[in-house]
Design a protein that fits this description.
This protein has 489 residues and is mostly helical. It is 75% helix and 3% strand. The two termini are 28 Å apart.
């Protein structure tokens, strides 16, 4: 077996094996957390080891077995999957570091189950990232939903169970009603579901049939949170903050928009869609989701709810960019998966730190908190600037490419949506920053002094906020990967 194939298998197997080690160390918290961090570091090493090969044009992979002709469990590392795997593996390390402080600081129960499920969720995410075909992606996509359900319902309260039912119902429902039929029809028409540069449907479908199949995929990939199939995401905010970070930045929603982009590029092909079927309806749906979710976020007082609707809006940036079908917008969509991940995880880390140190959950309670928690709120500010798209934060780069693609393709309505969304982003983030640093503490808070959250949480915040700034300055490897998606076939 060549080194590339071994690394692909190791990247998938490491978090799965690590989950066993974590479970065995359950009675010894320090050893359990060490096993978590060690596994996460090894996974990042594996994915980074694959990066030079992929940048050089290589596509390491392995085919495990074939269920039916054209339906195989197989892995192959292409540029988009490499981006997603880098996001998942790198952020697992900082999320694990953050989780140690959060779970201990809040005296959470079932901590071993939490770490085990988290590791298994990362294994599923890597399976999605390296899926060589739609069938493999579908299998690990469903596994990710099932594995993360115990994390969403972690607290075991009636509210947590209700949120879990919505989570499971919408994600499994959209998969069974839309995504599975799309998979079966693709296999029937093309005889394969392999991801292929330029797509596998060229010359096989056109017009209404092609557009209908695209609709099945877009609404079947419920993790992308396109309206009206978005309610699972705010409903899942009953989970602990590290789980919210997993949902919004590390694995779940990123699996959604990653799958959308991968299907458009490697199943349909942007050129086929541009000539054989209209994607204007998808631009409209994504544009509506962007603006509507931003308006809801603007009105939300609960901080995690505001961040949740911000995520719904930002996810549709990727869908909108993919639907525009312009090379620049496709590059922007791929980059936005990364830049949104580091910016949004920073914001959720900040929200969890505020809850842990000050027991505050509402935006209206944050007056003056920047004086007590300057590191946390400075990191929050950097994450907010990234999601607004203000340099020198990384979000500016992906937004620039998406807007440039919209302008180059003559999608001026989409460009207007992006501009309006940017203003709304500023309207629901900047007042939080202003209140935290420039408004006085409420009178009652002066008698209840508190400082920053536990050190491991603050370190994680500093790492992700630094990454948000660093990706603006050192984005070349990510840009090279994204550019390979639109390189001549």
């Amino acid at each position: 077996m060549i080194a590339g194939e071994a690394l692909v298998l190791a990247a998938f197997a490491l978090p799965a094996v690590g989950s066993v080690a974590i479970a065995l160390c359950g009675r010894r918290p320090q050893l359990r957390e060490t096993a978590t961090l060690a596994t996460a570091v090894l996974l990042l090493w594996c994915t980074l080891s694959l990066l030079p090969t992929v940048l050089a044009g290589g596509r390491p992979g392995v085919r495990l077995f074939e269920l039916l002709p054209g339906l195989a469990i197989a892995f192959s590392v292409e540029p988009l999957g490499m981006l997603f795997a880098l996001v998942a593996s790198a952020l697992w390390i900082v999320n694990s570091l953050y989780s140690i402080g959060y779970m201990r600081g809040n005296r959470e129960e079932h901590q071993t189950r939490f770490y085990v499920c988290f590791a298994l969720a990362i294994a599923a995410a890597i399976g999605i990232a390296f899926a060589a075909n739609v069938f493999t992606l579908f299998v690990f996509y469903e596994l990710l939903t099932l594995i993360t359900y115990p994390l969403v319902t972690h607290h075991g309260t009636d509210k947590a169970k209700a949120g879990g039912r919505i989570y499971l119902g919408l994600l499994i429902g959209t998969s069974m009603l839309f995504l599975l039929p799309a998979l079966v029809f693709t296999w029937h028409v093309a005889g394969t579901t392999d991801f292929t540069p330029g797509g596998i449907l060229q010359g096989r479908l056109s017009g209404f049939a092609l557009g209908g199949l695209l609709a099945l995929y877009m609404f079947g990939i419920g993790k992308a949170a396109l309206m009206p199939f978005h309610r699972w995401l705010p409903g899942a905010m009953v989970a602990p903050t590290p789980v919210s970070a997993l949902l919004h930045a590390v694995a779940v929603v990123k699996a959604g928009v990653f799958s959308v982009l991968k299907v458009i590029i490697y199943v349909f092909g942007t050129e086929t869609l541009a000539t054989e079927a209209s994607t204007d309806w998808l631009v409209v749906v994504a544009g509506f989701t962007i603006v509507a979710a931003s308006v809801v976020a603007l009105k939300a007082d609960n901080l995690k709810r505001r961040l949740a609707y911000s995520t719904i809006s930002q996810l549709s940036y990727v869908v909108l960019a993919a639907a525009i079908l312009a090379p620049l917008s496709v590059i922007g969509a791929a980059l936005h998966i990364v830049t949104h991940a580091v910016g949004k995880i920073t914001l959720f880390f900040a929200a969890g730190a505020i809850y842990t140190a000050a027991h505050k959950t509402e935006v209206s309670q944050l007056d003056g908190i920047g004086r007590r928690m300057p590191w946390t709120m400075s990191a929050f500010t950097i994450g907010a600037l990234s999601l607004i798209g203000i340099p020198p934060a990384a979000g500016f780069i992906s937004k620039w490419f998406i807007m440039s693609g919209a302008a180059a393709g003559g999608h001026f309505a989409a460009l207007a949506v992006l501009i309006v969304s940017t203003l709304l982003n500023a309207a629901y983030f900047l007042p939080i920053v202003y209140a935290a640093f420039f408004r006085p503490l409420p009178a009652g808070d002066e008698r209840q002094p508190h400082g920053e959250a536990p050190l491991s949480m603050v370190i994680a915040l500093m790492l992700t906020s630094t990454a948000t700034l660093s990706l603006f300055l050192f984005s070349s490897p990510l840009l090279q990967l994204a550019e390979q998606l639109v390189a001549p076939k």
